[in-house]
Every structure is written in structure tokens, then in C-alpha cells.
TrEMBL record:
Superkingdom classification of source: Eukaryota
Keyword Signal: yes
Any matching Pfam family: But2
Record's keyword terms, sorted: Signal
Ubiquitin 3 binding protein But2 C-terminal domain boundaries: 44-188
Cell membrane keyword on record: no
Span of the signal peptide: 1-17
UniProt-recorded name of the protein: Ubiquitin 3 binding protein But2 C-terminal domain-containing protein
Length: 214
């Protein structure tokens, strides 16, 4: 295993108020607590995950449990349902990427340069069984995010924005890479125990200035 391999995964901002900014990064050693914890009732697990393949542009992957990425080919789509009742909150799009030693029920593999890119779809345009590379949800109003680099042992806040943008419907985005083989099992772990969450989440925040450390 190459100690220099940077992970990557990008993720991102379905909420998209400030495209391109990685707002927070918290690094911890493997023996520390989870890079980030999730508060019960205050986050969304992706409602729908699927892949698309540039080399098989008409293939439908259907519902999946994993994020999967290959260089310039397989990309992953993550979609969240944001209830209308959250219109008054700020939505934080976060990728939580623990070290393998911090995971009990999940795992990941990655190898490559670690460059990932995100494109947000239009709120309300949701992926489903019909989704293929050639039949993606409708493009969103923002340009793709710049490349994001990620590595195990960190949590990345990709975007913070007002939840009303997608409240009452779905908000989805596509993440792809030009240089990395990566997969992970999206898993929230044990919210009260030592098994860390891994993957992409939308967390609700009330009364916190967006973009500042709590
Ligand atoms: C991937 O994209 C990044 C960011 O644009 C770039 O710096 C890098 O050279 C690209 N890598 C490959 C293998 O194309
Ligand atoms: C959301 O973020 C904005 C910008 O920082 C802040 O002014 C507002 O108070 C936040 N709202 C909530 C509900 O946290």
C-alpha cells in the first residue's frame, strides 16, 4: 500500500450556495474519534445512489449502496430528499472519510491521484432507474466545482447553503474523477458507538454561521 496515495472523492454540493469552496477540513489521527459524527435526526442519508458510465453511456445501474469511481469512466450520483420543514435550516454537504481502522461495518478502497469533481443537478431533478450517462438529471444552475482532494481520516465540508433551495424535493449531484479508482460502502455506522460514518451526508444546522468552525 502506497503511503502517499491520496484519496479522493469528491462530493458535493447539492445545496450549492458557494460552489468550489471546501469550507472545512478536520484532520485526526487514526486513534482519534471519528472525523465527524452525525447527530440523530439532524442529517439526511442519501435517498438514492447510482452510477453512470461514460464507456457504457446507455447502461442503467439502478439503486446502489456504494460510491464507485474509475478514472474518466464510472461516476456516482447521490440524491438527498430534503423535507419542506427544513426550509429554515442551513444544509451542509459533507463527505466523511474515516481511516479503515475507524470502520467496523463499512470499508473502502482507493488508488490514484485523488482528484474528484462535482456537478450539481437542478433541485427536483432526481436520479432513478432511468438514469444513465446519456440520461442524467437536469443540469443545475452552478458550474462544476473545482477538483477536490480527499484522504482517509478527514471530514470535508463541501458546501453550505440555505436548505430552502431544495426543501420539499430532491437535491442530487454527480461526482467523477479523472485519475482515481475508488469505492466505498455508504454507511452511517453506529451513531452512539465507535463505528464511524463514511460517505456523503447532508446535515442540518440552525443558528450556526455557515462556513465557520463551530
Ligand atoms: C486531473 O485533474 C486535475 C485537476 O484539474 C489535474 O491537475 C490533473 O492533471 C488531472 N489528472 C489527469 C491524470 O488527467
Ligand atoms: C445560515 O447561514 C447564514 C450565513 O452564515 C446565517 O446568517 C444564518 O443565520 C444561518 N441560518 C441558520 C438557521 O443557521
Amino acid at each position: 500500500m502506497k503511503s502517499t496515495s491520496f484519496a479522493a472523492l469528491a462530493l458535493v454540493g447539492m445545496v450549492a450556495a458557494y460552489p468550489g469552496e471546501v469550507l472545512r477540513k478536520r484532520a485526526l489521527s487514526e486513534r482519534d474519534a471519528c472525523p465527524r459524527t452525525l447527530t440523530s435526526g439532524q442529517f439526511e442519508f442519501p435517498h438514492y445512489i447510482t452510477q453512470i458510465s461514460k464507456s457504457e453511456p446507455d447502461k442503467s445501474f439502478g439503486p446502489q449502496y456504494n460510491g464507485v469511481f474509475t478514472p474518466n469512466d464510472i461516476a456516482s450520483i447521490f440524491s438527498f430528499d430534503v423535507p419542506a420543514s427544513r426550509a429554515d435550516a442551513n444544509c451542509t454537504l459533507e463527505f466523511i472519510f474515516p481511516a479503515q481502522s475507524q470502520l467496523q461495518t463499512s470499508s473502502f478502497e482507493y488508488e490514484g491521484g485523488g482528484s474528484f469533481f462535482f456537478t450539481g443537478y437542478n433541485p427536483g431533478s432526481c436520479p432513478g432507474e432511468q438514469t444513465t450517462w446519456n440520461n442524467q438529471p437536469a443540469p443545475g444552475p452552478f458550474p462544476p466545482f473545482p477538483a477536490v482532494h480527499m484522504e482517509p481520516g478527514n471530514a470535508y465540508t463541501i458546501d453550505v447553503g440555505p436548505c430552502f433551495v431544495g426543501a420539499g424535493t430532491c437535491v442530487a449531484g454527480m461526482t467523477y474523477t479523472n485519475d482515481t479508482n475508488f469505492w466505498f460502502f455508504q454507511d452511517q455506522g453506529d451513531l452512539t458507538g465507535p463505528d464511524c460514518p463514511i460517505g456523503i451526508y447532508t446535515a442540518y444546522e440552525y443558528g450556526l454561521p455557515a462556513g465557520q468552525e463551530p
